[in-house]
Write a structure and sequence with these properties.
2 domains, Tumour Suppressor Smad4, 284 residues, 38% strand, Rossmann fold, alpha+beta, single chain
């Protein structure tokens, strides 16, 4: 018997559709493990640490990108294929829309799909030679100052080679998947998910020549606060956070376990960009 996971947004329409999907799956003698979306928490230690059952055939995510990121966190390091069904506003991570759900679900159950590996970042926070936190993210990590904090001064090293000290409201380190999230709003470029790179985007830099930078995915990025600081937060995929100070070193590198995103034959990444960003796709 196949076992399928469903992660659903806290939304009446999404919950209603999840009920229909669960009933439909049961009619096909498929076991269902259902998980309500856990809202992001302000502190990483408050985020639920339960894992998805390892024998899931796949996971359907009914919600927006935030729901999808929480589902990825639920999967952890496992290689369970995952499919997003759009119920949010933008939905860059959704492969299909609500009205195509059952058609696509039928194809998935019949193995008529492929998967695309999406790189994740492994992030370690080290304080006085002790590992304070270890997280994986699909989109990004963000160093951000609070409302009353002064500019953050962030020393940045690439492969232990000093690059620069950003004086800015914050710093984003993102995967190609995350290039269409917060980094895009901060002026960063869009990177195709097939490009093996890591994106570094300063948030409102004081020095105007500080611009977004793409480094190879083989690079190890190390950042720390250059001056005594307070009210500075490190967030992981917007799902949880950790207050940091000048005693902390954040080490970011390509994670060993990519996410297996289900793709359908008629879906193309460029079409997603054209749709979500309202590009005409033709000449002006």
């Amino acid at each position: 018997m196949k076992k399928v996971g469903i992660v659903v947004k806290e939304d009446a329409e999404a919950i209603k559709k999840a009920d229909e999907l669960e009933k439909w799956l049961h009619s096909k003698d498929i076991d269902v493990v259902r998980k309500e979306n856990i809202r992001p928490r302000s502190r990483i230690e408050d985020v639920e640490e339960s894992s998805a059952p390892p024998d899931l055939f796949c996971i359907f995510v009914l919600g927006g990108d935030g729901t999808f990121l929480s589902a990825v966190r639920w999967i952890g390091d496992q290689t369970i294929p995952i499919l997003g069904v759009k119920f949010g506003e933008v939905g860059f991570l959704a492969e299909t829309a609500e009205d195509s759900l059952f058609f696509v679900a039928e194809a998935v159950l019949n193995n008529e799909f492929t998967t695309e590996p999406r790189m994740r970042l492994l992030v370690k926070v080290i304080r006085e030679e002790r590992e304070l936190a270890r997280e994986t993210v699909l989109n990004d990590i963000v160093v951000n100052k609070g409302a009353l904090a002064r500019l953050a001064h962030i020393e940045t090293y690439i492969n232990d080679h000093y690059m620069t000290t950003y004086s800015a409201d914050g710093l984003i380190v993102a995967t190609p998947t995350g290039s269409t999230a917060y980094s895009l709003a901060a002026g960063g470029p869009i990177i195709h998910p097939g490009v093996p790179g890591i994106l570094i985007t300063p948030i409102c830099p004081f020095t105007l020549t500080n611009r977004p930078l793409v480094v190879p995915d083989s690079a190890c990025i190390r950042i720390r606060l250059a001056k005594e600081s307070s009210d500075i937060m490190l967030t992981f995929d917007g799902q949880g956070g950790l207050e940091i100070d000048e005693k902390d070193t954040i080490v970011i590198q390509k994670g060993p376990h990519p996410v297996k995103m289900i793709t359908m034959p008629d879906q193309h990444y460029i079409d997603v960009l054209k749709d979500k960003l309202r590009w005409s796709g033709g000449r002006v």
